[in-house]
Amino acid sequence: MFEFRNKGVQEYLGDIYDFMHFKKLKSLRELEQKGRSGSLKLKDASKNKEVYERSKQLVREIRKLNTQISKSEKKIETVENEISEMDTILMDPEQHKEALKDPDVFKKYNALKTSLEKEMQAWETLSMKLESLRIDQEKLRSA
């Protein structure tokens, strides 16, 4: 008696009944069912591995986005502080006269405002990506 399984051949001495007794089977259908459940376990294992790999990838992407958001927030804070300093200078009559001696003061002010707008848009885009990844991560956990 020969058994062909897992890309190999196993020889059993005796007849079919000896083989069934050796395998502790009541019928050959039990052998088929065991074979199917084994292949299901392999599919589950490969699916679990895929889920694990996707989860690791999401964690890396989330960590990367958190770092980018943190840098963006620091840049926004810096630009807002510079704008605030310029506002203070432009509001004070004495400092205003001094600031007007620089012909590019308003160009610098507008450049700061533009820079702030761009950085806030970048922050918003990063935040939306992060939220999307977190939703994907939750879906993955619940699946």
Keywords:
4 helices, single chain, two-stranded antiparallel sheet
Notes on the protein architecture:
This protein is mainly alpha-helical. The chain has one domain (2-142). It contains 4 helices and 2 strands; from the N terminus they run ββαααα. It has helices at residues 16-23, 28-91, 93-99, 105-142, and strands spanning 2-5, 8-11. The protein has a two-stranded antiparallel ribbon with strand order 1-2. A hairpin with a 2-residue loop joins strand 1 (2-5) and strand 2. Helix 2 packs antiparallel against helix 4 (105-142). The longest helix is centred in the middle third of the chain and has 64 residues, at 28-91. The mean pLDDT is 84.
Which series of helices and strands comes N to C? Answer: EEHHHH
**Which stretches are poorly predicted, pLDDT < 50 over at least 5 residues?**
none
Counting DSSP E segments of at least 2 residues, the number of strands comes to: 2
Q: Helicity range of the residues? A: over 70%
Chain-averaged pLDDT: 84
- Helix count, DSSP H or I runs of 4 or more residues: 4
Shape: rod-shaped
Query: Number of folding domains?
Result: 1
| Radius of gyration of CA atoms, rounded to a whole number | 34 Å
Order of strands across the main sheet: 1-2
Structural class: mainly alpha
> What percent of residues are in strands?
5-15%
Characterize the biggest β-sheet.
2 strands, antiparallel
Distance between the termini: 44 Å
